[in-house]
Write a structure and sequence with these properties.
This protein has 10 helices and 11 strands. The protein is of the alpha/beta class.
Length: 312
């Protein structure tokens, strides 16, 4: 295995169950928690929940329990709040924060035993924020933030949740607003350039990028509404592959694997009724993964969208 392994997980709402199932299988096959396999974990939105929880010490199976609670308690449409806020968002962010607080407590990023990156976007200036532990090679400006606050900000997807105020940073929304829906490239830049020299060397590092389901291709657009749906869908899906391609081009000596299970139908980010379906899809997909081979770069190339891989 490589000296260092890094994990990144896309945004995707309730579809975070899919990479969770892959990680449950990883912990089962390797007989160790994910944070003992990956020394750097980066996530956006639902990926932030998973990576932050893994870094804190929760097992992937325990996080799946958290997701079942999130599906039941968070995605409750409040018509009165929706009307009072002029339709700005569908769900309150407080239940998300409260559930995360129950599982993660008041830990700050610097408390975590592994490196982490959680992406968010500040509303006041559109600036992307990458919440990481402090070290001598970075700005040392986010390590004292609470893990719960960083994750909640990353979860606050516009139109789904209201923005979230991160102390000392400001009001933030989902890091997927922009280019970090798949944070693999940002994670590699942080690891290779903004940690002490020698901590992460591309040639000695393997990066695994987990997607939250490749959506089926829509029918050819035939009218304005179809075209709007097509554009929004492409804006959500294309960055996942693009960010992985950037890593493969710019860090050619690093091993890189993109894993993204295909979906037979469109499943919304807030479709809480799809939990059991997603678990079934995720478990079936995960049963075909050989994690030892993946981390050693020995898996054969397979067609998109199941697996994108560049071996050493």
């Amino acid at each position: 295995m490589p000296e260092r392994a890094m994990l990144t997980i896309d945004g995707g709402g309730i579809r975070g169950i899919l990479p969770l199932c892959a990680l449950i299988e990883l912990e089962k096959q390797l007989q160790k928690p994910a944070r003992e396999v990956f020394s750097f974990m980066a996530g956006t939105s639902t990926g932030a929940i998973i990576c932050g929880s893994l870094a804190h010490g929760l097992s992937a199976r325990k996080i799946l329990e958290l997701y079942r609670l999130l599906a039941r308690e968070v995605f409750r449409f409040d018509l009165l709040s929706f009307a009072l806020d002029l339709g700005s968002f569908r769900y309150r962010i407080k239940p998300v924060r409260d559930l995360l607080e129950h599982y993660l407590g008041d830990a700050v990023l610097n408390d975590l035993p592994v490196d982490i990156m959680i992406s968010a976007t500040r509303v006041s200036d559109g600036k992307p924020w990458y919440f990481v532990r402090d070290n001598p090679a970075n700005a040392g400006s986010t390590g004292k933030l609470r893990l719960v606050d960083c994750i909640t900000a990353s979860v606050a997807a516009p139109t789904y949740f209201e923005p979230y105020n991160v102390p000392s940073v400001g009001v933030c929304v989902d890091g997927g607003v922009g280019i970090a829906g798949n944070p693999i490239y940002q994670c590699c830049v942080e690891a290779f350039y903004f940690t002490p020299a020698g901590t992460y060397v591309p040639a000695d590092t393997y990066v695994v990028s987990l997607g939250t389901g490749a959506m089926p291709n829509p029918a050819a657009p035939r009218n304005l509404i179809d075209w709007v749906s097509w554009v929004v869908g492409e804006l959500q899906e294309i960055p996942g592959d693009q960010q992985t391609e950037l890593v493969m081009r710019h860090f050619q000596t690093a091993g890189t694997t993109r894993i993204n299970p295909p979906l037979s139908r469109s499943i919304g980010l807030d479709d809480s009724s799809a939990v059991n379906e997603l678990v079934g899809i995720g478990q079936e997909f995960a049963s075909h993964l050989n994690w030892k081979a993946i981390l050693e770069g020995q898996m054969a190339l397979q067609p998109r969208p199941l697996l994108l891989q560049r071996n050493r």
